TrEMBL record:
Keyword vocabulary terms for this entry: ATP-binding, Chaperone, Cytoplasm, Nucleotide-binding, Stress response
UniProt protein name: Chaperone protein HtpG
GO cellular component, as recorded: cytoplasm
Region (A): 1-341
Function: Molecular chaperone. Has ATPase activity.
UniProt source species: Cytobacillus depressus
Family under the similarity heading: Belongs to the heat shock protein 90 family.
Subunit comment: Homodimer.
GO terms, molecular function: ATP binding; ATP hydrolysis activity; ATP-dependent protein folding chaperone; unfolded protein binding
Pfam families: HATPase_c_3 (PF13589), HSP90 (PF00183)
Gene designation: htpG
Residues involved in ATP binding: 31, 35, 77, 82, 90, 97-98, 117-122, 167, 341
Length: 559
């Protein structure tokens, strides 16, 4: 049988990945072990929901077998296996979901964000192997198949022999090059260390035959080699561990292991709830915006486990939209395994967990704001916009949650400030929280409308994001202080605005004003004398709820 060509795009992606994505080659093992673990999860889940299938925990394991003589490394699992079709679709085409097209449009330089999100972890094997062979027998199938590939130029699939259900991956480890040595991936102690480092919490045993030395029986000091099968990993999932036992690195490597992101998480939140609802959760606030975050493809959600078994990859009900950037997982003993998507939404336990998580995220963000302002600003640069959308879309109580987390650039402080900062600095005679909208801080600073407010010495919040003013309109007030655009007709500052003096000036120049109004019919509602201008001859102001800036944004929106 001839080779089936990888799709052209796959080929390029594969080359790109092999050359640049992983900074360390050793992670190939983490990827293959995590796939093996997923495959056992799948068969376990099936057994729990199908009474014809029995899951005997002892029968499920992952085994790593290096062989220096023929330079192979085998990763064997007793998971669900793959049919011929599955070998083809799961291993044959990378990035089916159009990630490459996306990459082209958006010029992602190193492709960091693509891996994992679209499931190309398996290909990491080619970083250390010239040939990758996968022999697999699927559950409910009599025939095993062998998939084989030498990298970018394609693969073959042929029928094969295998007794047990599961998958065996055989890596033909590369020969050493001038600068690069691959021998370490055949060394049992090195492999043991890699497994410990990345896969310690995998919940199924990862076995290896380890060679030891022992005294030959009956002799004093003569040693002999012996081989002992060891379980390398501790098998306790990280979320069940005690917080004090875990280091920052443990959390970070779990974040990477799970492909939650390739950045360093800004913060992790480890919850062990033991009250009316029992659950464990590890949540992360990423540092960077996922590349698809503001696209339709982005799906929010947390991984959901029921007593250690993964039941859903992205449980959306666990996160409100305004915290959709949060990554992580939840495990609860109190959830039923047979639960379907529809039932899940109405599940009381789940709702309680969601509520609890929401509170926790908020309080963690607040404490970050209070105790590590710099970190919070990094967070806010990435996800502040989402919080503002949250305020804007509010029909309930989000506002309460979110208003204290908002920040805007301040005219007087020349940096981001919170509403609380602003209000606590307000002079007694200042009635409103002033803001000005515009394309950039520089442009806002030059607005004629802002002159009077600035001259009074009042602080002005600069709204440079389209959503800002809309969000503030929903908020209406903060600590009983209303928001006021510097371009609104009544600024609440100068009571002289409509007094006799201006009245007089208006009357004296009635013809001029009438003429201007006539020329600008349909464009303006009125033309008036104003006391607010200092160095500028004229400015626009607005009367109603919708300010000039908002009008611009609304007009720019597609119908
Ligand atoms: P991901 O794990 O993110 O889906 P991978 O590239 O690591 O992406 O794997 C691709 C797919 O191949 C998996 O989703 C799974 O369906 C299949 N697969 C890989 N390894 C195994 C295995 N050991 N047993 C069963 N299926 C596997
Ligand atoms: Mg994988």
């Amino acid at each position: 049988m001839g080779k089936i060509q990888f799709q052209a795009e796959s080929k390029r992606l594969l080359e790109m990945m092999i050359n640049s994505i992983y900074s360390q080659k050793e992670v190939f093992l983490r990827e293959l072990i995590s796939n093996a673990s997923d495959a056992i999860d799948k068969i376990y889940y099936k057994a729990l929901t199908d009474e014809n299938l029995i899951f005997n925990k002892e029968d499920y394991f992952i085994k790593i077998v290096p062989n220096k003589k023929d330079r192979t490394l085998r990763i064997i699992d007793t998971g669900i296996g793959m049919t011929r079709e599955e070998l083809e679709t799961n291993l044959g085409i990378i990035a089916q979901s159009g990630s490459l097209a996306f990459k082209k449009e958006n010029e992602i330089k190193d492709g960091h964000d693509i891996i994992g999100q679209f499931g190309v972890g398996f290909y990491a094997a080619f970083m250390v192997a010239d040939v990758v062979t996968v022999i697999s027998k699927a559950l409910e199938s009599d025939q095993a198949y062998k998939w084989e590939s030498e990298g970018a130029d394609g693969y073959t699939i042929v029928p094969s022999e295998k007794d047990e259900v599961g998958t065996e991956i055989i890596l033909k480890i590369k020969e050493n090059h001038d600068e690069e040595s691959y021998d370490e991936y055949l060394d049992e102690y090195r492999l043991k260390a890699i497994i410990k480092k990345y896969s310690d919490f995998i919940r199924y045993p990862i076995k290896m035959d380890i060679t030891g030395k022992r005294a030959i029986e009956g002799s004093e000091n003569e040693l002999e080699d012996y081989i002992e099968e060891q379980i390398i990993n501790s098998m306790v999932p990280i979320w069940r561990k005690n917080k004090n036992e875990l280091t920052e690195e443990d959390y970070t490597s779990f974040y990477h292991e799970k492909h939650y992101g390739f950045d360093q998480p800004l913060k992790h939140i480890h919850i062990s709830a033991d009250g009316t609802i029992r659950y464990n959760a590890i949540l992360y606030i990423p540092e960077n915006i996922p590349f698809d975050y503001y696209s339709k493809e982005f799906e929010k959600g947390l991984e959901l486990y029921s007593n250690g078994v993964l039941i859903m990859n992205k449980c959306a009900d666990l996160l409100p939209d305004y915290f959709s950037f949060v990554k992580g997982m939840v495990d609860s003993e109190d959830l039923s395994l047979n639960i379907s998507r529809e039932i899940l939404q109405q599940d009381r336990q789940l709702q309680l967990i969601a509520k609890n998580i929401n509170k926790k995220i908020k309080s963690e963000l607040q404490s970050m704001l209070k105790n590590d302002r710099e970190k919070y600003e990094t967070f806010y640069q990435s996800f502040g916009r989402q919080l503002k959308f949250g305020v804007y879309n509010d029909f309930g109580t989000h506002k309460e949650v979110l208003q204290d987390l908002l920040m805007f650039y301040s005219s007087t402080e020349k940096k981001l400030v919170t509403l609380d900062d602003y209000v606590s600095r307000m002079p007694e005679d200042q009635k409103y929280i002033y803001y000005a909208s515009g394309g950039s801080n520089e442009r806002i600073a030059k607005l004629p409308q802002a002159e009077l407010v600035a001259e009074k010495g009042y602080e002005i919040l600069y709204f440079t994001d389209d959503i800002d003013e809309f969000a503030i309109k929903m908020l209406m007030k903060y600590k009983d202080k209303e928001f006021k655009s510097v371009s609104s007709a009544d600024l609440g500052i100068d009571a002289n605005e409509n007094n006799q003096e201006t009245e007089k000036e208006m009357n004296e120049n009635k013809d001029l004003f009438d003429f201007m109004k006539k020329v600008l019919t349909e464009k303006v509602k009125d033309v008036r004398v104003s006391k607010r201008l200092r160095s500028h001859p004229v400015c626009l102001s607005s009367d109603g709820e919708v300010t000039i800036e908002m009008e611009k944004i609304l007009n720019a929106m597609p119908d």
